[in-house]
Specification:
- The chain is mainly α.
- The protein has three domains: about 35 residues, no CATH class; about 160 residues, Alpha-Beta Complex (Aspartate Aminotransferase, domain 1), CATH 3.90.1150.10; about 220 residues, Type I PLP-dependent aspartate aminotransferase-like (Major domain) (Aspartate Aminotransferase, domain 2), CATH 3.40.640.
- The chain contains 18 helices and 13 strands.
- The protein has a three-stranded antiparallel beta sheet. It has a three-stranded parallel beta sheet with strand order 4-3-5, with helices on both faces. The chain has a three-stranded antiparallel beta sheet with strand order 9-13-12.
- Strand 3, helix 9 and strand 4 form a beta-alpha-beta unit.
- Helix 1 packs across helix 2.
- About 40% of the residues are buried.
């Protein structure tokens, strides 16, 4: 009937006879009359609302891309529309996105990726033979010799073999098994997957996940999403953000009163603190302090003897996003999981198979990170020069940031031993805290929002990472080029001094 009525409204075939001898126009008129006497249905209520949605998802917070970043986007649009500000650009120092900050890609990595993406280039004399060799090896392991094919859920076999060989070299000969290697969509994908496997129970038996405070917000976000229990252990800011074993014991003891603490997360070198433990992590290439050296937890377990190396269940992660590569957009990563029960390994592979496979291009990028040019190969000298340049600049910027921040009254910054961030402590006057409360903001959020509005510099408040009560911080990346970083640091210094004067 509705279709017939629609035809009449368009003036189509008004005298055509229907199946019972009536004209379609007559039938349509009857239908229209019926429709008019029906009471109009009320608008259908939405099924998905803030009240009905998954409460665990609603509880997720991710400060690195939170309200301060949304405000930065609004300001950028205002600048584009010609609205005058005390600055001409927004400097996004909130996230460790190396290439967005001007870091140049490593030539060898991009050469191999270009060859893998467009194999016709394998015949080009413009590419070195060692790059071609790696590209051919990767492509031969892909279905149809193409990055566009799915891989096994655990990842391309030859890349897992290269990761295992890399870990063995890194740890001074401690063996790594390719069967324990799982390629992932960045390190975050692996972390989320492992936590999914670990979280279980209810009430006091619910899984507790111990995380360092300050922490990288991925951990608290995934813990919220999985409805696990977050167990904080505090790093010692007065001792260069050191991990204190007694603090770990305190956290475990108190956690046992309300949950089952069975996961310990460690970030090394630290994010956001820049602390370098004597062990693990995606920043393992970013160690600047001459007094620090990276040691993997796996190697430490091995040195502690079979009682530990054969029994402790350990998952470690690495990615293409950090280190000297800074290839965040490829979303390449891996995890090595040791001493996992065979039946649990089967469950892990099952869980990974749900997402089919990580991006094969990201897997290829990860392969180049773990299988770089070696002495005697054509690309070795250029690769080494570029790698050392990136790490040397980061070391220089780490020291520059520490020194300049510590010249500012009311700011204290611990030495940046590694990673690519600073997490300075800031003094916030009482009147500023009152103003923050009036704006319904945490004091350090208020500080960072004012910094953004007055200077265009976007940093993340320490409350998004966790901090001891009564202390305030912000995290910023040290990735901008040296001259721009100097400008950023000077602007922060000038702002902070004015902030203290205004709210004295």
């Amino acid at each position: 009937m509705q279709r017939a009525a629609a035809l009449v409204r368009r003036g189509c075939c008004p005298r055509t006879l229907g199946p019972w001898g009536r004209s379609q126009s007559s039938a349509a008129a009857e239908a229209s009359a019926v429709l008019k006497v029906r009471p109009e249905r009320s608008r259908r209520e939405r099924i998905l609302t803030l009240e009905s949605m998954n409460p665990q998802v609603k509880a997720v917070e991710y400060a690195v891309r939170g309200p301060i970043v949304l405000k930065a986007g609004e300001i950028e649009l205002e600048l584009q529309r010609g609205i005058k500000k005390p600055f001409t650009e927004v400097i996004r120092a909130n996230i460790g996105d190396a290439h967005a900050m001007g870091q140049q890609p490593i030539t060898f990595l991009r050469q191999v990726m270009a060859l893998c993406t467009y194999p016709n280039l394998l015949d080009s004399p413009s590419f070195p033979e060692d790059a071609k060799k790696r590209a051919r090896r990767i492509l031969q392991a892909c279905g149809g010799n193409s990055l566009g094919s799915y891989s096994a859920s655990q990842g391309v076999n030859c890349i897992r073999e290269d990761v295992a060989a890399y870990i063995t070299r890194r740890d001074g000969g401690v063996p790594a098994d390719p069967d324990n290697i799982y390629l992932t969509t960045g390190a975050s994908d692996g972390i989320s997957t492992i936590l999914k496997i670990l979280v279980s129970g209810g009430g006091k038996s619910r899984t507790g996940v111990m995380i360092p405070i300050p922490q990288y917000p991925l951990y608290s976000a995934v813990i919220s999403e999985l409805d696990a229990i977050q167990v904080n252990y505090y790093l010692d800011e007065d001792n260069c953000w050191a991990l204190n074993v007694n603090e770990l014991r305190r956290a475990v003891r108190q956690a046992k009163e309300h949950c089952n603490p069975k996961v310990l997360c460690i970030i090394n070198p630290g994010n956001p603190t820049g602390l370098c433990f004597t062990s693990l992590g995606v920043y393992q290439d970013n160690v600047y302090s001459p007094d620090c050296k990276f040691h993997s937890f796996k190697k430490v377990l091995y040195e502690m003897g079979p009682e530990y190396s054969s029994n402790v269940e350990l998952a470690s992660f690495h990615s293409t996003s950090k280190g000297y590569m800074g290839e965040c957009g490829y979303r390449g990563g891996y995890m090595e999981v040791i001493n996992l029960h065979p039946e649990i390994k089967g469950q892990l592979v099952k869980l990974l198979s749900v997402r089919l496979c990580p991006p094969v291009s990201g897997q290829a990028a990860m392969d180049i990170v773990v299988n770089p040019p070696v002495p005697g190969e054509e690309s070795f000298e250029q690769f080494s020069r570029e790698k050392e340049s990136v790490l040397g600049n980061l070391a220089k910027k780490a020291k520059l940031t520490e020194d300049l921040f510590n010249q500012v009254p009311g700011i204290h910054c611990n030495p940046l031993q590694g990673a690519m961030y600073a997490f300075p402590r800031i003094f916030i006057p009482t009147k500023a805290m009152e103003a923050a409360q009036a704006h319904k903001m945490a004091p350090d959020m208020f500080y960072c929002m004012k910094l953004l509005e007055e200077t265009g510099i976007c940093v993340v408040p320490g409350s998004g990472f966790g901090q001891r009560e009564g202390t305030y911080h912000f995290r910023m990346t040290i990735l901008p080029p040296v001259e721009k970083l100097k400008t950023v640091l000077q602007k922060v210094k000038d702002f902070h001094i004015k902030f203290l004067e205004k709210y004295a």
